[in-house]
Amino acid sequence: MSEWHDQSDVIILGGGMVGLAFACALKNTGLRVVLIERGEAPVRESLGRDCRVSAIVRGNVQILQGLGVWEHLAGVAGPMRAMRIWDNQETGGIRFDAGEIGADALGYLIENSQTQKAMHKVLLDAERFEFCCPAEVDEIEWGDERVHVALKDGRKLSAPLIVGADGGRSWLRQQAGISCHQRDFHQQGIVATVRPERPHGGIAYQRFLPTGPLAMLPMSGDLCSIVWSAEDAEAERLMGMDDEAFLTALNRLFGPVLGRIVEAGQRAAFPLKAQLARHFVRPRLALIGDAAHTIHPLAGLGVNLGLRDAMVLAQEIADAKRFDEDWGKLSVLNRYMKQRLPDVLSVMGAMEGFHQLFTHDVPGLKLLRGAGMRLIGNSGAIKHLLMRNSTGLSLPVPKQIG
Ligand SMILES: Cc1cc2nc3c(=O)[nH]c(=O)nc-3n(C[C@H](O)[C@H](O)[C@H](O)COP(=O)(O)OP(=O)(O)OC[C@H]3O[C@@H](n4cnc5c(N)ncnc54)[C@H](O)[C@@H]3O)c2cc1C
């Protein structure tokens, strides 16, 4: 590859929620940022709403506020005031209320497309930001001081750092020769918007079934979003059902807590995998979001981890620039990785533990999980700690960079 006529400071590959959040975080740093997105997937509607919905935990709402994204989400974010978890055997149950940690909500349910739209609005007036979309990388060359990228449309870019925010099947991660630890759950997450008979009151329900969890998440407008994790064969059977049969199956398993579920919109299914990249960084490369780690959606924390990656990496780059350091150097990027690994590993470990604890019906395990849930429910201190950790309120993450 010969001449490189673009001299950017940071190239981002992937304009999902995490790549866009990272671009928003760099907006006031004076860095020239180019984001390459191959073309956003069309929104899949279910009862007129995006069927991809994410719970953004309370601590990360503060991040979105700092980025100026939150103000564009007023009216579309459904507050999650409480969460009720119970298992298939009714051996125990636990309820978390936002009031117990002095918060108005544990988090908010937002359609992914709305979050992305809000992030695009924040980037509209960013002077040193270029959005290349639709665009794809044809070739990448790792130089000592810069990474060189040739796009399929002939454009050429170069920067001291490229950031992979290109999702679980990251092309960039493969190009860098970074392999992953992988765990295939042989499950699919079926998502859809549904209408229950009774108002949800801002309560999220998570029911653990032997085949996997079924979540009923409160959206704005008294609709709910379901994430029904089922083994591959069962998922295919559920996806193949007509609406009436699907509603019957859903009502039978979820129970009457919200009255009957009277309507279900179009369904979509996503294969569920846990995946951890063996390296988050290489000289001139950092991975963030699902490109670095993908987790089971049972706790709804994937994008939440990604937002924290984006903020920590942006802070490290901004600090490096301030101190005249090369932000593509491994020593700078290692600071990002060292800060993020404990959070990522603890969430991944907790998800694996939860999955094992709730999906096996060994008698001893059933007793243990009943006792565990009662212990957490009765112990103010443990519950408080668990809630502060799972809502991201205990983590020191920069809320504004610049
Ligand atoms: C059923 C389900 C429910 C979930 N619920 C929650 C939840 O409640 N809360 C939560 O926190 N998380 C949840 N998650 C996880 C969450 O959806 C992901 O963690 C999040 O979407 C990851 O964002 P990302 O930006 O890293 O990757 P992605 O959303 O995958 O975005 C990657 C982007 O990169 C682009 N791209 C890919 N390859 C290229 C390329 N070669 N060139 C250019 N562009 C490229 C893609 O077009 C895409 O726009 C859920 C996941 C599933 C499957």
Keywords:
binds flavin-adenine dinucleotide, 10 helices, 402 residues, nine-stranded mixed sheet, 30% strand, FAD/NAD(P)-binding domain, alpha+beta
CATH secondary-structure class of the domain at 10-76 and 106-181 and 273-361: Alpha Beta
| Mean pLDDT across all amino acids | 89
CATH topology tier name of the domain at 10-76 and 106-181 and 273-361: FAD/NAD(P)-binding domain
CATH architecture of the domain at 10-76 and 106-181 and 273-361: 3-Layer(bba) Sandwich
Give unreliable regions as ranges.
none
Largest sheet: 9 strands, mixed
Instruction: Please provide the count of β strands.
Output: 23
Form type:
globular
- The helix count comes to 10
Question: Briefly, what is this?
Answer:
This protein is an alpha+beta fold and 402 residues long. It has 10 helices and 23 strands.
Give structural notes:
The chain is an alpha+beta fold. Helix content is 34%, strand content 30%. It contains 10 helices and 23 strands. The strands form 5 sheets. Strands 7, 8, 15, 16, 17, 18, 19, 20 and 23 form a 9-stranded mixed beta sheet that branches. α7 (302-322) runs antiparallel to α8 (330-359). The radius of gyration is 22 Å and the shape is globular. The mean pLDDT is 89. Flavin-adenine dinucleotide is lined by residues 13-19, 36-38, 40, 54-55, 136-137, 165-167, 171, 189, 191, 227, 270, 289-290, 297, 300-304, 306.
